[in-house]
User: Which sequence fits this backbone?
């Protein structure tokens, strides 16, 4: 696990840029944290690094957005879902098991057991109005590699 | 009867135009592009290749699954819109059964295997007797390992096809089980058109036709929760 404390949006953006630069196709980012903790903002900055031109907004209503950048980004928001069967209904597994794109999942902690092997957990903790602690963890090779890159990228 | 057939139940996109058991044109591709981007363009191209106008179509046939939820919805939505706009018949063809017609030959167990995600496959076993398809093991969702065990336990000539055939075939390198070559493993528009010709008197209802969704039983879901 690796953690960073950020004191502004600008600092969060720098971390997102490192993630965006090193993330591999087929990776799932499981974002966890309260409302307003910065999950969507983080996603926006990753998308920007991956050269997404369209607008990035939290898909709370429509459950999923697809953005075209260097590779496709599947942006999920599971806030409104309660059952595993609903994940089947939206084709969740087809996207997270795809090795073409990157999946970014907000409120992923609602369905921890449904996340694929190549998941990197990203936890957002609100310290005060502007400060956040952002922690990366995960068991797979993909997660370990990304954590290593993050360790090298920021002192 | 001039039929436009759509097969988008997996990563393979296949569009065919056929009449009375003659394939006029077909585009089959397995690219990284999504069906939502390619399907309509392929329909236009295939009609053009077949030298037919959309107004000449008598029916549209569509692969019903089970398969990719997203793919099936794109296929169904397109097929329904076309059937409605042109006021023509619609036929929904079961994907795995249609796939089996690649090997409509006697004395062979034909096993269709499509991706059900999370290490599971949709599978169904068939035999052809006098050209007629018989279901030997009915459609269900099983793990890749279970699908492999089943095939091995039968000890008879069998062919594996579908997008998960290669995965199920892993570790089975000899004996009576045969992995269909890649070009005979893929679901294809022509096979969906075939269904419409065979069932031409039994068209489906445009308003009520739905994809064939097969879920794992609730018991299996619970078992997985407990045993992780």
Assistant:
């Amino acid at each position: 696990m690796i953690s960073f404390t950020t004191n502004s949006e600008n600092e969060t953006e720098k971390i997102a840029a490192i993630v965006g630069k090193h993330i591999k196709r087929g990776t799932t980012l499981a974002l966890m944290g309260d409302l307003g903790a910065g999950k969507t903002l983080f996603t926006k900055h990753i998308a920007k690094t991956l050269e997404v031109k369209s607008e990035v907004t939290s898909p709370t209503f429509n459950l999923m957005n697809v953005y075209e950048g260097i590779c496709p980004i599947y942006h999920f928001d599971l806030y409104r879902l309660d059952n595993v069967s609903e994940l089947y209904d939206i084709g969740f597994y087809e996207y997270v098991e795809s090795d073409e794109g990157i999946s970014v999942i907000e409120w992923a902690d609602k369905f921890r057991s449904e996340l694929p092997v190549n998941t990197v957990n990203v936890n957002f903790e609100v310290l005060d109005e502007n400060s956040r602690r952002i922690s990366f963890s995960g068991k797979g090779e993909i997660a370990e590699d990304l954590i290593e890159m993050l360790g090298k990228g920021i002192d | 009867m001039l039929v436009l057939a759509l097969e988008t139940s997996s990563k393979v996109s296949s569009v065919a135009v056929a009449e009375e058991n003659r394939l006029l044109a077909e585009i089959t591709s397995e690219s990284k592009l999504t069906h939502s981007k390619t399907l309509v363009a392929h329909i236009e191209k295939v009609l053009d290749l077949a030298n037919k106008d959309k107004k000449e179509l008598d029916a549209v046939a569509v692969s019903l699954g089970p398969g990719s939820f997203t793919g099936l919805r794109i296929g169904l939505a397109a097929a329904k819109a076309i059937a409605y706009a042109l006021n023509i018949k619609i036929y929904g063809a079961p994907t795995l059964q249609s796939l089996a017609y690649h090997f409509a030959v006697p004395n062979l167990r034909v096993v269709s295997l499509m991706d059900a995600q999370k290490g599971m496959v949709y599978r169904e076993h068939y035999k052809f007797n006098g050209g007629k398809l018989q279901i030997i093991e009915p459609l269900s969702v099983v793990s890749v390992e279970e699908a492999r065990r089943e095939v091995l336990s039968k000890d008879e000539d069998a062919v594996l096809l579908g997008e998960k055939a290669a995965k199920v075939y892993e570790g089975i390198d000899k004996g009576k089980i045969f992995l269909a070559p890649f070009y005979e493993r893929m679901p294809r528009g022509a096979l969906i058109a075939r269904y419409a010709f065979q069932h031409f008197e039994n068209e489906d209802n445009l308003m009520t036709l739905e994809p064939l969704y097969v879920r794992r039983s609730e018991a299996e879901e619970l078992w997985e929760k407990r045993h992780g």
User: Anything to note?
Assistant: The helical segments of chain B are 35-49, 69-86, 95-100, 144-154, 165-169, 189-198, 218-227. Chain B has two domains: 2-94+187-198, 96-184. Residues 69-86 of chain B form the longest helix (18 residues). The radius of gyration of chain B is 18 Å.
